[in-house]
Specification:
Layout lengths: L1 E6 L3 H7 L2 H8 L4 E6 L12 E2 L9 E2 L1 H12 L11 E10 L2 H7 L4 E5 L8 H6 L3 E4 L9 H12 L32 E2 L2 E2 L9 H19 L11 H12 L2
Parallel strand pairs: 1-2, 1-6, 5-6, 5-7
Antiparallel strand pairs: 3-4, 8-9
Helix pairs in contact: 7-8
The structure holds S-adenosylmethionine.
């Protein structure tokens, strides 16, 4: 899969992409990540990428010309032609990024992500260039680079082969509509807190059931609204009814 990241500060990405699982995914060519500096696509002497807003008010607005030139140049796109891959604007006004959206986007062989700064983009970038708009949540950051990294990270770990354990992402929180069960590792006892006996029993059937029940309980206590859409089995409903009855 290929990511094309368009930013005024592409150096921001480097250290995170050179760490741990993402670094390995790049080295093993599960993903190619191409960083593009929008400033390189300016044509004026001072390489200007932002300007004052029409109508007045504070802050600066990212100009459309270098963004269109960068994206069209990199994607080999004729002006007005449909892009060969999703062109995603990172914006707090977009649809909210979830595990389901990560799953959906992971099916594409290529994604272009455009990071904003300042007051954001000239509206014509939204209406004339992008195909999707994504927010990472209901808060405002100074730039779209962290949101873009969040998309790259969440999507990359879903690609086949990236995680050492092929089922590694299947039980993750939100992957199957539930929060994940608790994890333990050695030592078996720490400061008076013992690892649940069942996890050391070697009985894989019982361990699987215990984990499922813990995931159900966690979700019930922390995010009960998720249970209304989670795919639950009759055994799950029976288990949960014990707790619902006690409310
Ligand atoms: C200060 S923000 C601009 C916010 C804009 N004035 C608004 O109210 O919608 C600058 C840039 O950061 C990025 N950004 C900030 N918060 C974000 C969020 N929650 N999700 C995605 N991108 C975000 C966007 O690329 C945005 O253009």
């Amino acid at each position: 899969m290929q990511f094309d990241l368009f930013s005024l500060f592409p150096e921001v990405f480097t250290s995170y992409l050179q760490t741990s699982i993402l670094q390995r995914a790049i080295e093993r060519e599960f993903v190619q990540i191409h960083l593009h500096n929008i400033r390189d696509w300016t044509t004026d002497k001072h390489h200007v990428t932002d300007d004052e807003p029409y109508g007045g008010g504070g802050g600066m607005v990212m100009k459309p010309e270098p963004i269109f030139a960068a994206v069209e140049g990199i994607l080999g796109l004729h002006p007005g032609a449909p892009p060969p891959c999703p062109v995603i604007l990172l914006t707090p006004q977009g649809r909210v990024f979830t595990q389901a959206v990560a799953q959906e986007l992971s099916a594409h062989p290529r994604l272009a992500l455009i990071c904003g700064r300042y007051e954001g983009f000239d509206e014509r970038v939204r209406t004339g260039l992008v195909t999707d708009e994504i927010s990472i949540g209901d808060y405002v950051l100074t730039g779209g680079e962290l949101p873009a990294l969040i998309l790259v990270d969440a999507i990359t770990r879903l690609l086949p082969g990236v995680l050492g354990d092929p089922d590694g992402a299947a039980d993750d929180s939100h992957a199957m509509g539930l929060l994940e069960y608790p994890h333990y590792t050695r030592p078996p006892e720490f400061r008076g807190m013992a690892v649940p006996h069942i996890l050391r029993s070697g009985d894989h059937g019982k361990i699987a059931r215990w984990r499922r029940e813990q995931a159900l309980l966690r979700t019930l206590h922390r995010r009960p609204e998720m249970l209304t859409t989670a795919p639950l089995t009759p055994a799950d409903h029976k288990f949960l009814s014990k707790y619902n009855d006690r409310k």
